[in-house]
User: What shape does this take?
Amino acid sequence: MSEVPLDAYLLGVDEPVEDLVEILPEQPFAPSGVQVPVELLDQLSPMLRLRRTPPALVEAGLAQRHGGLTPIGQHLSRLHRDPDHRLRVDATAPDGQTGHLEASFREGYAAVLATPSPLAPAPGQQRYDVDPFIDVVDAAQVPGVLAAWIGLRPAWSLATEPATFPRRYLDARLRSPSAPPPPEADAHLRHVWDQTWTPWTLRVTAGPTVREMLRTTRTGMVEVRPAETPGDIHLGAAHSSMVWGELIRCALACTV
Amino acid sequence: MTTTGTMPTVTCPTTGVTLPVPPGWEQVDAPGCTLALAGPPRPAARNGTEMRASVVVTAHPHTDGTSSDVHALGHAALAAATLEPGSQPIAYDPLPLPGAIGSRRLIISATQGSLPVEITQILAVTGHHALSITATRPVGYLGDPGATTSTVLDGIDLGEGA
Assistant: This one.
């Protein structure tokens, strides 16, 4: 008999699989790079000549004390101000705070600007409306950074019914965790509905894509798509491997 | 190496596991592994750093005390995946594999040196062994067929001795 804890819900429907929440700890997102006020980032220019260089830029190694930008500052400025493509993820914490990650791509590199993540939060009280961290990375590193930021992790995805229902049920659930699912919801959808949700969106300039997603505690990522009937949505599981593949495709699309 | 169909294959004499060998790939020596394949060097980062995608098979017979429980095998792999700095388990699911009593697929985002890589581990419990088939490929330039490992993973044959 296995001593590995099993997922109680799935064991109850005769699917004896590992309890991934129990055996796999959350991995909080750890931003890399330097923390810089966003208004200073927007001022960055290769031609930067300020009477007094902001100390934050000097401390971050982006500008010289008596002059223009450092080489890394110039590189970052080009990426931030004039990218070939951008990719952005926004997420809303249960308390309503928002965080975001933006990657600006150019010539195989990316400037990644990230606040702390509501999707992969650090333990304890976390503020998301703080100055972002910014780092310059090889574009191939972006999918891994994105996966860490959105808290992508193994989960048991469930096929839920109905696949299509009025959006008002979802909006009510996003406003209040106690809002009920559609009356015809099957047991799997009710189980998904009972999880803690963190909504997030992905936008990519290298395509028309805007993806609306939910991160759920035990049932992984769930995608929300508009249905043909106005006012209705499709709600469906997005297996972690599919989301990972999508992150890679998006980053590659921004690179070429 | 033998050829079945259109692609050469190689069979591990210890476990009976057979893998296809895509064009440009070759069998290589890897300590501790019963079978190892490596692809051609390919650029894997903007600075031109090259990497060879690889697939390695490790096997432990149940007679050495290795668990024959796929839950325990998966649990151990998940735990190991969280120990490496910069390593993040991404996906985990049952993978029907003919000849296996139980099997799982684990996908990990990790780094090898400074290169971002995707690691796919196929974990399988057979009648005689606990098998781990681990594919590593660069995240960058996945559109390059020379860097793909899916051809090898899609062609796994655990063999009649499983």
